[in-house]
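ligand=nicotinamide-adenine-dinucleotide
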Amino acid sequence: MSIFSDSAFDNHEQVVFASDPETGLKAVIAVHNTNLGPSLGGCRMWPYASEQDAIHDVLRLSRGMTYKSALVNLPLGGGKSVIIGDPRSQKTPALFRAVGRAVERLNGRYIVAEDVGTSPADMTEIASQTSHVGGINDGKDPARTGDPSPFTAYGVFIGLKEAVKYKNGSDDLNGMRVAVQGLGNVGFHLCEMLHKAGAELIVADINSVAVERAITELGAKAVSIDEILSVNADILAPCALGGIINDTSIASLKAGIIAGAANNQLEADRHGEVLREMGVLYAPDYVINAGGVVEVHYCRQGRPVSETNSHIESIGATVREIFERADRENKSTGFIADRLAEERFGKKA
Ligand code: NAD
């Protein structure tokens, strides 16, 4: 098994293996970088095929959080945790209390939140053992449900509008055709905002109930999941899966702008370079989908939703800086986003 030589290790400050024989907990907590503040990142529960897979995943995800928090100007570093186990059959309250004790032992260097396979109820168990936890809804603010998705959608909306402004000189979405792949928690909220701004929606989801709802409530036009990426649209907003911009899909893209919530939309960095050569403006996913992390931070601080929203609006200026610099330096927007993040968190060579 390799850890220091794992491709995602990238000088992690600390990697902790947490176990608890009574509950069967096997978890890994990775703290990538705390230059800007304590590391924050979700706790993922997943039935990893091997321990190496779990380690690689936590390292990759925690490194990503350093970049995301730095670019959205939060006083936070990057961290993440994974529990090796099946969330459908192996969750117990005691397991999450054991996670809470492991987080507490890190003394605030890592703040845990929800992720794939974990829920607000699990965070409540963790919170019984440590204060270093986010994503807990205290019920004090009705605009806050504990669900970060509407805030993620708002950041994507801001980033998308900035991309339109950069390309067209105006951020007016009236009559613009936006193809949205995935109508889940983020995608549907984004569609509502786009509809309100006058955009025409073209949507696809494997969930026919969500598609029907978009048709009836938002006047969307539905296409099949095989057509959505190549549909005739001004903007493509991927809000379902990663890796959708790849060697197979890239040539058939028709949208001039890609701006969506899905993580890791480009299968490889080189696809960002191809998009640039094609004249497609790509708003890097982790830059514009950071609204949820902003909300977790403000919620933890007990600060109002209005402050979350005004902070999220700063995503517009960041993504514009990335577009301008990418043009000046003839580089892909993803490449520039990474360099800007590294400048902000002070990456050492
Ligand atoms: P979700 O699971 O609620 O929604 C995903 C939707 O995509 C579902 O409706 C699903 O049916 C659909 N889908 C799955 N396969 C599809 C396919 N082949 N074609 C079309 N639709 C398909 O997830 P979410 O919370 O809305 O997140 C969406 C994306 O945004 C994910 O990649 C997630 O990692 C990323 N993201 C989410 C947040 C957040 O706050 N929820 C934050 C940052 C990034």
